[in-house]
Amino acid sequence: MDDKIHGEAETAPHLKEKGLDPLTHSTVNASGHEDSLQRQYHLIATFSVALTIDSAWTALGGSLAIAIGMGLYITLIYWLTQKANGGPAGVLYEYLVACFCYLLIGASLAEFASSIPSTGGVYHWASVASGPRYGRMVGFFAGLCNFFAWMFDLAGAYSIASSSVLGMYSIWNDAYVPQAWHAYVTFVVLVFISCLVLIFGNRWLPVLNQIGAFLVVGGGLITIIVCATMSQHAPSSFVWSNFSENNVTGWSDGVAFMIGVLNGAYTIGTPDGVTKLAEELPNPSHDMPKAIFVQVGIGTISGFLYAIAILYSITDLDAVVAGEFPLTVIYGQATGSAAGAFGLLLILFLNVFVACITTYLAVSRAWWALARDNVTPLAKLFKQANSRLSCPIQSVIFVGIFCCGLGAIQLGSAAAATDLFGSFIILSTLSYALAIAAHLLTRRRNIPKGPFWMGSAGFAINLSALAVILVLDVFFCFPALYTTTVSTMNYNSVILVGLALLITAWWLVHGRSNYPTPKVLSLYTKDGLM
């Protein structure tokens, strides 16, 4: 198909300039495929998608909503309740460092998104940046690594949403004792509802995301104001000081600080989320870079202010530690009433649930993009898209089933499930690193210049982003405690190696012989851009 398209394009430049297939006059997008989905996300809707997927302050608070009683281990809970990694002061300062790092990463990804506005995102950027010789293999690994990262993040998001539901229920039922299966049933129900929304309500998704963005900004502002205006607060020394005194990890302050940046990264680390909807935007080359910077900027501010408000609201740390739902206890201390705590928790749940739906949307598009290029098993099935519903239905259903399967892990081992969900940051940044490293090693020559191009500053920013990823990912594999046990061990490195072996095996079994050169690589090569 590519040979015919590009061969004919030479005799029909007016069609090529309009992005049309000279044979069928149908639109050929930046991925090299014909458009299959409606381009319905204008600029504000695009910003809304980026903000909703990230939902920085809810990611921060939602991690506290996970029930300690169900055995789930979230690092922020440990830092606050056990005073590790610098305590509350560590949470704040480590968060700011994470946001700065993601500003560098986001700038690098924004440049890619502007140049190659494809739903494949990192997968296609790594393919083109690596050039014709290595692009096929590098893109294959980057694409699958990125997909699994987002798949684990999606399961983690639904875990937060389901725990928030149980937290709201517990406010009015003091005798309630949460069980793992309660959370899982809620998890499955929320995934099922989301699946129906994505399949049958696609045309309403831009509106839903704008509601989500309103909840991110408005709901966050309401929560911050409520927490900040209550009469009782923790002393400033509890919030801003005593980092060394609160570092009980056994690591030096510097190492403990670097390990602690992980929580901030989990809160802000979704810069490529919006790029998975590139082929549903009328003007993706211009709008996606803006959306990435809006996400990082607003996410940084909202998350930081929320963290301050929450930390000042903790007046009885022992009660937070003893509670089944820590955030519920904190909200109760902040408002002084069950109704107030319920209201704030409801705001968080609505925000998280919309974020779950939008993240589900993005992950299904990522799987669909891989299937179009025959990366996945059963690619002929998953590459299909329903033109009437503007939805790759099979991919949406698959992602939902996969997500429920991941959620079921907590029934057997909650710690294993949480480690898997938490590996999102390492796996996603590793996929970014493959694309950025290829971009640097080819002296930034293979990626065409888009509307957002960093010029001479690009090399320094790309190099800084790559260095940040490599350094942080090493620390993120360290255990939280210097003296560790099986239960407190950090299994990120095990997950990383296991996934690398899985992708390598799939490459040897399928990719090496059955995965063709992706259309995006053929497109940019044949257009003389390399």
Automatic annotation (TrEMBL):
Membrane topology: Multi-pass membrane protein
Keyword Ion transport included in the entry's annotation: no
Gene Ontology BP term (one): amino acid transport
Entry GO terms, CC: membrane
Localization in the cell: Membrane
Keyword Transport: yes
Primary localization: membrane
Keywords: Membrane, Transmembrane, Transmembrane helix, Transport
Gene3D superfamilies linked to this entry: Amino acid/polyamine transporter I (1.20.1740.10)
Pfam families: AA_permease_2 (PF13520)
Transmembrane segments: 57-80, 92-116, 137-161, 181-200, 212-231, 251-270, 291-314, 334-363, 389-409, 421-441, 453-482, 488-509
Alphabetized GO MF terms: transmembrane transporter activity
Protein name (database record): Choline transport protein
